[in-house]
Amino acid sequence: MINVIHTGEALCELKKLADKTCHCCVTSVPYFNLRDYGHKEQIGLEKTPEEYVQKLVAIFGEVKRVLRDDGTLWLNIGDSYNGSGKAKGDKTVQNRVQVSNRASHATNPTKIDGLKAKDLIGIPWMLAFALRNDGWYLRQDIIWQKPNPMPESVTDRCTKSHEYIFLLSKSNKYYFDSKAIAEPVENTKPNHDNQTQKTELRPQRYGGKKYTANPDVFCRTKSGNAYDYRPYRNKRSVWTCPTANFKDAHFAVYPEKLILPCIKAGCPEGGIVLDPFMGSGTTAVVARKLNRNYIGIELQPKNVEIANKRIRNELGLFE
């Protein structure tokens, strides 16, 4: 069943899906120890980071089974700090967050044995390494740089303005459409109207006089190499994208722009994108806008209603 959001716990619902049916998985997992959504099966309030990571490894083990052999996982995850067990947190920030998360409440960072108070836990890399140990190929860490991060009142460190997106694959060879997400380059050369245009110099060796046949295409260096100009280059691993607001959601949502390259590169048109933590339905909306299908899973029935309403409003897919 495609273009449907299944209501239930991620691990349980994933086990109902057939083997090797989805082309890629694009998802954002609940943060560790930051929000309480009031559901007994929620992920994120485990007593230790290890328990949290273990649960996610089990879930993504099922994701790996559901993915095709050439499938990829694009995983957005943020980090958390260890608390002292005494502090009550920054109420200014918590109250501001609470306005857009009325269906949950912020948790105070709890003290974790074995870590010092104020320690950055390193949740993203703990999970990335655990997934690698579970058989995934850890292919890349992508930095989501936020130009509008949540304000913080801390005075002994910088305001955090980035998260990770990990690219993992099921096999050593996998579907990845680099041309679909190529970006304009920054090198320049004049065009026929003596105007500057962005291009990239890419080294190529040419014999004879081929490198001078068209000076608008090739140039020669002192070493004798010829370079051809190209207007696009491979996408870089730092993605600058503002955070998004969605007025009907009672939880954090990632922006459509952030996952657009994930779906473009990871899933062919007509393919299926999986999201086991569907939330407000961003993955579904972007997938359908790009002529891909989706399969979603979401624990909270209310969130499923919000996501389906959003899909109806933005795409008009449902009557």
How would you portray this structure in words?
The chain is an alpha/beta fold. The protein folds into 2 domains: 4-180 and 235-315, Rossmann fold; 183-233, no CATH class. 24% of the residues lie in helices and 25% in strands. It is built from 7 helices and 16 strands. The strands form 4 sheets. An 8-stranded mixed beta sheet has the order 1-16-15-2-4-7-6-14. Strands 9-10-12-11 form a 4-stranded antiparallel beta sheet, with no helix packed on it. A two-stranded antiparallel sheet has the order 3-5. Strand 11 (218-220) and strand 12 (226-230) form a beta hairpin. Helix 2 packs across helix 4 and helix 6 runs parallel beside helix 7 (301-315). The two termini are 18 Å apart.
Return the structural class: alpha/beta
CATH homology superfamily of the largest domain: Vaccinia Virus protein VP39
Residue share in helices?
10-25%
* Number of separate strands: 16
Number of helices: 7
What is the third-level CATH name, the topology of the largest domain?
Answer: Rossmann fold
Average pLDDT metric:
83
Tell me, briefly, the overall form: globular
CATH architecture of the largest domain: 3-Layer(aba) Sandwich
Low-pLDDT segments, ≥5 res: 87-105, 205-213
Largest sheet: 8 strands, mixed
Radius of gyration: 23 Å
Strand order of the largest sheet: 1-16-15-2-4-7-6-14
Q: What is the terminal separation in angstroms? A: 18 Å
